[in-house]
Design a protein that fits this description.
Largest sheet: 5 strands, antiparallel
Length: 370
């Protein structure tokens, strides 16, 4: 592996003399390394080096075109606002032939970024303030990219949030029942089918022109925001592989689904699972504030629906994978995907019970914005 890293390193415009590498981060998609170089005078310079996952991202060239275009746009906007683009967005290190990626002898795709020093990310919400800061940062991401022509971006995973298409695929999986599991999960299947109207909700609004496409991140977990170690403030959005055209409500909703839950995604004891309204409020406050008036009144009104729909969609995907024999999501025990689906459906039910509270929270911060 060291020889391969040395080969790859030689093709990027890194500063200094290569000194070594170590695995980095908690991601499960790409292979990520922190590589260290020594500069004149003995100082160190560090970079992130990643081997991209071609099995998930079928068109790495398009993916990198998205990332370089978006980060370049962000850098300009950050400079205009008096910020520090070297800390507030990713910086793609070019290859020596001027490209944004290198293809090794085995056909694997590699890319590199400047390493942002004195920053940290968190896998779980330990303090409400961290959740607020992540919301502020993802909202600021929306604000800075509000004028970017979203339709010019490639779909790195086509149909990623086409909930209607996912619902139809789910129906097919139930009918085919390739693993003969459907009879044991009839209640869960009924939960999905009874909420069919959710699957086309946003798509119908788009067709009527009531909501439009934006540049969206599409993986708005807490650990995709770097926090400044000294100030604790949200600093930079990372992991831009799924940046593509989408809806602001999807980004908001995915954060709530993951971050405002009181339990892990695969918790077996559903009595421990609900949507924490204090965390929902912290995130709503930060997201609307970070967006800085760039969301339309309709988009803001639909934020609770974003949370419910994203949670429903994710639960449906887990259940479909269980029905098909656990072929997409990695599992670590029998019925792992079923447990995941049940936690999502419990969250959906809890949101339905707290719907008026969620809407009132959104209205409170929408009014504060104005």
């Amino acid at each position: 592996m060291e020889a391969l890293i040395m080969e790859v390193v030689e093709h990027f415009c890194f500063q200094g003399t290569y000194k070594g590498k170590k695995p980095w981060g908690s991601g499960h998609i790409n292979d990520t390394y922190l590589v260290t170089f020594e500069l004149d005078g003995g100082k160190q310079k560090r970079y992130i080096l990643q081997r991209m996952n071609k099995s998930i991202f079928k068109e790495p060239e398009q993916l990198m075109e998205n990332i370089t275009s978006v980060t370049g746009f962000l850098r300009e906007r950050i400079r205009e606002n008096g910020g520090d683009p070297d800390r507030e967005t990713l910086h793609v290190i070019p290859t020596k032939d001027g490209g944004s990626y290198y293809v090794d002898a085995e056909g694997e795709y590699w890319r590199a970024y400047d390493f942002i020093e004195d920053a940290v990310s968190y896998d779980l919400v330990e303090r409400p303030e961290d959740f607020y800061e992540s919301a502020l940062t993802f909202g600021r991401f929306q604000r800075l990219l509000a004028d970017y022509p979203a339709e010019t971006l490639h779909e790195t995973i086509p149909g990623f949030h086409d909930t209607r298409a996912r619902f139809e695929a789910f129906q097919k999986a139930v009918e085919e029942d390739v693993c003969h599991r459907a009879d044991s999960v009839r209640d869960e299947i009924r939960f999905v089918l009874d909420r069919e109207e959710l699957s086309g909700y946003f798509g119908d609004l788009q067709k009527r022109g009531e909501i439009g496409l934006r540049v969206t991140h599409n993986d708005t977990k807490l650990n995709n925001v770097l926090m400044d170690k000294k100030t604790g403030k949200g600093l930079c959005v990372i992991d831009l592989d799924t940046v593509m055209p989408g809806l602001a409500m999807h980004d908001f909703g995915d954060s709530i689904r993951f971050g405002a839950s009181t339990a892990l995604e695969d918790e077996k004891d559903l009595d421990k699972v609900w949507c924490d309204m204090h965390l929902f409020e912290e995130y709503t406050k930060g997201f609307i504030e970070g967006c800085g008036g760039k969301l339309t009144p309709k988009e803001i009104e639909l934020l609770p629906m974003g949370a419910k729909l994203m949670t429903y969609e994710c639960g449906m995907r887990f259940l479909m994978d269980y029905l098909q024999g656990d072929v997409y999501f990695k599992i670590h025990r029998p019925e792992h995907n079923l447990d995941r689906a049940r936690t999502q459906f419990k969250l959906v039910s809890d949101m339905e019970n707290k719907w008026q509270t969620m809407e009132n929270i959104v209205k409170k911060y929408a009014a504060a914005k104005n």
